[in-house]
Amino acid sequence: MRIAAPTNEKGQISSRELKKLTLALVVLIFFAFLNSSYSQLPLSTGAPYVGQKVPGFTLPDQHGRPVALADLLKPAAGGKKCSGLVLIFYRGYW
Question: Cα separation of 67 and 61, whole Å?
Fold first, then answer.
């Protein structure tokens, strides 16, 4: 059984079909690249899990000034207590 691409009267692939085939190829290449890049990452045995209590830490902000977790959780100037903090961990090499 042979599968042929749709053609017009002149035997050529229409521009609409060419766009669909190109999009399918780009998506396929993207997912192949994504899969290969994730398979090369080492397993993270010490990664935190959702709901785990975070140990205290201090890291630099975007201006290089140190910011401590304890400072972020302190009550604000108006006395309003911080109700929580969201930490996002990006896994990768950059």
Answer: 6
